[in-house]
Amino acid sequence: MTLPKSHNYDPTHVFDVMVIGSGIAGMAASLFAVNRKLSTVQAGSVGGTLFTSGLFDLISVYPVGEKKLWENPWEALDAMRRDGSRHPYNRISKEDIQVSFDEMISFLGASGMKLRFDQNRNLKVITSMGTIKYTYCVPDSMWPGVEAYETKAPCLIVDFNGLKEFSARQVATTLREEWPALRSLRVAFPGMAGRDEVFAAHLAQALELSETRIALARMVKPELGDARFVGLPAVLGIKRTQTIIAHLGRLLGVPVFEIPMMPASVPGFRLKEIFDSELPQKGLLRLIDKRVMSVNRAENGNFLLNIGGNNESQVIQARSVILATGRFMGKGLLSDRQGIFEPLFNLPLHQPDNRTAWHHERFLHPAGHPINSAGVDVDDSFRPVDAEGRPIYDNLFAAGTILAHQDWMRMKCGSGLAIATAYAAVTAFIENFMKQSTRESA
Amino acid sequence: MIKTLLESTFLFACLYMALGICALGILIRIARWFAADIGPRSAVIPVWMRVAAATKGFVATVFSLRFFLFFKVLVLDVMLQARIIKTDLSRWIMHIFIFFGFMLLLLMHALDELVTKKVFPEYYSTLAPFQQLRNVFGLMVIVGVAMAIYRRVRQRGPMLITRYADRYAVIILAVIMISGFLVEASKITSESVFNRMMKDFSSAGGPADEDAIKAFWSGEYGTVFADFKTPVTPELIARGKQLNDESCGSCHAPTKTAFISFPVARALRPAAVPMDRIQADVILYYVHVLACFAGLAYLPFSKFFHIITDPLTMIVNGMSDKKKVNQAGAMPRRAMELDACTNCGTCSRYCSVAPVFRMTGNETILPSHKIRTIRSLSSGKKTGADELRKISEGAFICTSCYRCTEVCPTGINLQDQWFASKELLAEKGYPLPHVWMKQFNASEWSDRIRAGEATREKDVDTIKGRYYNLTADSDVFAPCIQCQTCTNVCPVVAAQTDRKDAVDITPQKIMNLLRLGLNDLAMGSRMVWDCTTCYQCQEHCPQGIQVTDIIYELKNKAYGHFKNIDRTAGNDS
Amino acid sequence: MRTQVLVIGGGATGTAVARDLALRGVQCILVEKGDLNSGASGGNHGLLHSGGRYVTNDKEAARECKLEGDIVKRLMPQCVEDTGGLFVAVRGDDEKFIADYPSHCAECGVPCEAISPQEARELEPTLSENVIAAYRVEDASVDPFKLTLLNISQAISLGSRRLRSTKVIGFDIHNKKIERVLVRNVNTGNEFHIEVEQVVNCAGAWANQITGLAGIEVPIQYSKGTLLVTNDRINYRIINRLRKPSDADILVPGGTVSIIGTTSTPVEDPDDIYPTVEEVDLIVREGAVMVPVLERSRFVRAYCGVRPLFGKSGGSDGRNVSRGFALLDHSKENVDNLTTITGGKLTTFRLMAEKTVDLVCRKMGVTAPCLTRTEPLPTTTGGQWTEPGISPKRWMRSHEPDDIMICECEMVTRRAIDEIIESLKGHNEKPGLVDICMRTRLGRGACQGAFCGMRAAAYLYERGELTGREGIVDIGKFFQERWKGIHSILWGDQLIQAELMESIHCGLFDEELYTPSR
Amino acid sequence: MKFAFFKGCKIPYYLGQYETSTRAVLKPFGVRLVDLEFNCCGYPNRDLYFESFVLSAARNLALAEKKKLDIVTPCKCCYGSLKHAVHYLHENEKLRRDVNAVLAGEGLSWKGTIQVHHLLTVLCDDIGLPAIYASIVRPLGGLTVAAHYGCHALRPSNVVHFDDPLAPSIFEDLIAATGAKTVDWPRRLDCCGNPLLGKNNALSLSLMRTKTSDAAESGADCICTACTYCQIQFDAVQSAETPEDQRESMVPAILYTQLLGLSMGLSERSLGISRNALSIEKLGPAWKLLPGAF
């Protein structure tokens, strides 16, 4: 009989990698690290992944000021490379970006979230706003929507009483011109008929039960008409999405798909569930950051993470840190009236000179707001650097949106940036440390 | 001339009168058990059904295997008072002293003609060992009572309650005991008693012999002679002893064996002659006997009644299942239990929520006090709304842990009493705070705050938050970025219920109400009072807002503000 | 189209003029180039001065404020929160100014009561420990949006009309008389004439542009004032700094928020003004001297207004120019039927309207007396939703099962939005998010529209008010309207909020790709 | 190993089997449980009086401190409540002073020298999974169990320090030791509904039923609990409140100590199996298939 791991850890153990942050970058870094048999500890809060839409962008807009949309994301990367942009993508080879995506996709696929993509083409996804969003890959649950949009096949979009963030009518009306065969339907969600308001995650939880799905299908089926697809807000379960999609598809006789909507996002919950439950099984030690008090550095260069509270305080030691704490929402960057700063290591930041230069006077200014390209400057090993370009610590790496010279919201590169830079940081650590220590021990 | 009880018509009449009063008292009280409505009015059952249920229960128990429990209860609980020793050794000693001392005095001394004579044919009250034993028993009672008084004085506090009736009972008991010893002591010193005995029993011939016996009794037995002038010589005493052995010894042990009364007699020596002259022994005897009768008559009306109710309660409860309560039989049983309670305070000492009393000062939290409130609620006396609110708070803070019931030396099913009183209070419009909070909706509560009905912050220290004030500190809730994660993870908002049971607002809206300064609307909201405190919201908040702790604090504040508002306008309380 | 009187400008004065005229039986059309209160009437503190602010420098204004303030409190109580006010001085402030203050108040008949710094801090726990002197006065806060909406509502109910998004672009003047006014609908570009008897120019900071159409120059200086809105209310009473009027010396609580301001910067052009980062920093720094918690408060909005100051001055910041108003009869300049009212302050808006209408009526030969001095202002539906907290209070009391909350921060409900839409449609106007925002609290809370903008747009589609891609355009306008007020205060929590907003609307919905570049 | 055993209010009268099974299970591992005169953990009072809640908990902590014993409790509410009190007492000096002033009346004081453990942590960390695996004589293969975590031990994590609050695994690890299979069910970390019992029964039962339906849909034979209140909810309350026509869909609940005890070969009597309101036979075929089933 093999013993499962204890939820407890050995306080004397020195971890190879300490990942700080629990957004996609943090999760990706942890995944890549544990997949490479590095002993890994991750400290992070709840947030992060909860706010993700479920779409995995690589890149679709470059240059931002021109709002140039790219059908082929790889060509956008080429263009960026040609221009000599300081975007973090330019420090990673296309092959590595590809490999990092593949590894993430295969992990999520194995954990019950199949991702679909078209190697050299961005997919077009309809959003709850009625806009068409370019993205690199989508979860299985959204794939029929991509097909439906491409073929402009007759399609019924269903929404629910009281789900105020999602209007099927809005989606259908907004897209009517290019997709006339789009119709909308509103129903009362089974079991919640008397409610003023309903919330996405609650609908998702309710759909985990087969009785709810049967009741829902019973309401939608008579209204199907000629529809060959049924689109629903992204609320199709958190744990059993594949079962739910398949079951609803069977009950309705046509494929069912999800339309991404604003937070709180069910696909985000789904992703979080997978990361939270699967990564520890791969050997990751996770700590909730409410317990992380501070990070220090030992004389031998190892990082010391003080955790605990009250009367108990423990120290976790790691040979390196990957900083994936995100931007302002993730608290990776803090700001006050004087400027922005990085709270854990007080890293020097690339940032505009003064607050006047942080934002444009127009919200949707095509160039994007300069503050969103501020952040941590790194070298090719993704180590934060000082003004002279020298790494601040040889064993501190940074990944994800905390990095400078990118505007993920405008370039549509959030997930890709997170995954690729996490990959780069982990491989850089292995290059610089594991091989080195192997050499030393040899 | 002293007459024994059986010879005195006066005393006899007194006895019958006392017995009559006692019997009548007992009957009245027992009748009250069946008539009193203790518990929820909705469960009120006609008196005849109560009697029937009690009888049925009695019969059913007698003719079942449970009947053997009777002996167990009788020996362990009633005789050896095992229930007391479980919680308090010194109390057990005290109680055993009083109980056994008194019982044995009753049987072997008061009822000597009926009991002792039958058991010990050679019994004579002045013989050894009966004389010593009487003193031993008397001493036990006195020591026991002294311990009781000492304990009562030492253990001050609201847990112990002494009623006037209880004080009188103790006084009567003390009078009985002290007068008893004084009777004996005065007899020892009494010349007239000596003379009577001489007349009745002595075969001694002349005055010389009489002198000898006198000398001996005066020296050894403590009798005080008014004009005994004969010089006392060792020979005279020896002769006296010889004569004593011959004619008195057979039915009179040395008075020294009355080891309490004898020293008392010695102490009384200077006053002996005048006392004898006024026949103090006779007077004291009357005092003693009449006090006993008084005690007897008073028995059903004082703490002494527990001599009857306690064994009954122990037997009834010891033989029935405390968790399965038969409602018809419950009312008489509860009434009997109220009589059985001796206010010993053991329950309160073990009460699981006693610390709450220590913080809030609401003594109705404590079981011993609750028994009193139940008595007053069932007495039909009008209880004011303020008082009822206080009682209700005390009643519903109880966690129903059965600990009081477990430790009650009398075996009262206290927990059942609490269940019944909670139901009764709910009927009267004073239910659990979580329930009465919903009598009004959030807006109506806020109206009442605005109308100045609610307790003002400055009047109640706790409302303002002595240690934390999350709901008034915008640093705590202002970071909310409206992402609705809290609402999405809330199981209560998700729960599938009817509209009337559903919550009114969501956790996120609470944060917004706080920001809008509408704390008074948040306090009475159903979301706050239907929160399961599962902490999902707080754990998931990306901004680290203490959502659940805020909800807890809102509950505290709402309770502080609203608890003194009359919620039962129109109801008959 | 024709009317007796054309009122130009839909601010507090313009709407009050319309109401005053209507109450005297004179029918009018009010034209406004933007939306109601889009000028200084919407860009101020919302402070009903007791007069205490002016007792030292402008005694006439102080007396006016006292009298008018009392009238507004009495006749328009639904627009007023009678908070009372404090004047406080902190260590280092001018001792003589402090010492003379009560006697100045007495001179102007402005009630004022000296209290100890200790008492002041008990009344207002957020006050600095450095407070050295304090006086209680009778300041109150007033909701300028509600004021304007209710004024125009009554005028309309008495037969007047209002035209929004209608800009005056020319006068036909014959015989020293404006006969026709040429206007243009700024949304559709349609131009048309309105025949008039009298023209009242209540265009405030834009008064000069109007008179310019008649070839008349009015000496007006523009002074920009910036104000900040906190996330939650931090004071009970109005707190004024007891010193010579300067930057950031008034903190006004208004319903659920507090407003700190203001600055005074001369500007050349009343259009296209934004609060700047420098002004914001100045306000926070100065305000924190009086109320230290401002240093770490979360601000949800910054906005500014342009004060039209009549006359010329040598001072640099325009504070030395009178805040009194100017009523100009342009007969002298050979236009008999044009009257301009400008300058002044919110507190005296009614008086300004009264004096203006007195003049106009004289010209028209109307003798009816002014009723706004004695008649209470009636409340109407549609004019009530700007009051902070009113929507949640009503919703909590009772609501229809489907009356959901569209805006969570300010708890604006579907019913409120329905009422606004109905009232806008009553004027044949197409409701948009910006209009709803101005008439309710929608989007004015912490999220500044990130969530409720989407929900409101969804609801407008549900109601069929929006079709095609209109929603995306409308939400873009709405965000821009909000952004104007937040881009200068984005740090700390509000920067997080802005990032969330952008990540949803640009990161996920790609809205910027749908908005034409300007 | 020696601990002060904190039973809480409900175990003695409502869930005696939890105490007997806990003692039975811990005994072979040499764990001694000491009974002290504890009072209520304070949880029920937290709704009304913060101070009373802290004092109640602090008195218990002080009693254990006096005996120099760590506390172990099998109840998650008690655990959460005691941990919360520890948290507040550490954090707020004024509170600490005031509470200690009251405790001083009984010669007690809180200094913060002892730890509070939940039974599961003691089993998993102090005794250790290897020892537990070694003690299994009758693995419960064939039984599928839905682990119900219970809220108050898990959250808020910065106060209770129990396990990962979002993806805990301690309970599944411990159940796996018995040989039973665990399911990953959507409502794993949700509330059982018991805190609302008597306050809003409809809501309380709705929460419970959502969980039982979910457990059933996830293929679990039974729900396993390690908390007094959760067990009462899923066992006694479910049994009493389920209408006659829905009794088929009930999902029985078993205490972890009972489950472990069975796999350790302890007698059903000592584990109090028969005292559960929902008979364990309802586990159906899975139960019968157990090696050496009865």
Task: Write a structural description.
The complex is a heterotetramer of chains A (442), B (573), C (518) and D (294). With 442 residues, chain A is α/β, with parallel strands linked by helices. Chain A folds into two domains: 12-108 and 269-434, FAD/NAD(P)-binding domain; 143-259, Rossmann fold (3-Layer(aba) Sandwich), CATH 3.40.50. Chain A has helices at 24-35, 73-83, 94-110, 143-151, 168-175, 200-207, 210-220, 241-252, 266-281, 408-411, 414-441; strands spanning 14-20, 40-44, 115-117, 123-126, 132-135, 137-139, 155-160, 182-187, 229-233, 256-259, 285-288, 292-297, 303-309, 312-323, 334-335, 340-341, 349-350, 375-376, 396-398. Chain A starts with 13 loop residues before the first strand and ends with a helix. Chain B has 32 helices and no strands. The longest helix of chain B has 27 residues, at 9-35. Chain B has helices at 9-35, 47-62, 67-79, 82-87, 89-110, 116-119, 130-154, 164-189, 191-201, 207-221, 234-247, 261-277, 280-298, 306-319, 327-340, 346-350, 354-360, 367-378, 385-397, 403-407, 414-427, 433-436, 442-450, 461-464, 474-477, 485-488, 491-494, 507-515, 519-523, 526-529, 536-540, 547-562. With 573 residues, chain B is mainly alpha-helical. Chain C folds into three domains: 2-40 and 145-219 and 311-364, FAD/NAD(P)-binding domain, CATH 3.50.50; 81-141 and 223-304, 2-Layer Sandwich (D-Amino Acid Oxidase, Chain A, domain 2), CATH 3.30.9; 384-513, no CATH class. In chain C, 35% of the residues lie in helices and 24% in strands. Chain C starts with a strand and ends with a helix. In chain C, α1 packs parallel to α5. Chain C has 518 residues and is an alpha+beta fold. The relative contact order of chain C is 0.14. Chain D starts with a strand and ends in a 6-residue tail after the last helix. Chain D has helices at residues 11-14, 16-26, 50-66, 76-91, 93-104, 119-135, 151-154, 157-160, 170-177, 201-217, 228-241, 256-263, 268-271, 285-288; strands at 2-5, 32-34, 70-73, 116-118, 144-147, 181-182, 222-225, 253-255. In chain D, 62% of the residues are buried. Chain D has a four-stranded parallel sheet with strand order 2-1-3-4. In chain D, strands 6-5-7-8 form a four-stranded parallel sheet, with helices on both faces. Chain D has 294 residues and is of the alpha/beta class. Chains in contact: A-B, A-C, A-D, B-C, B-D.
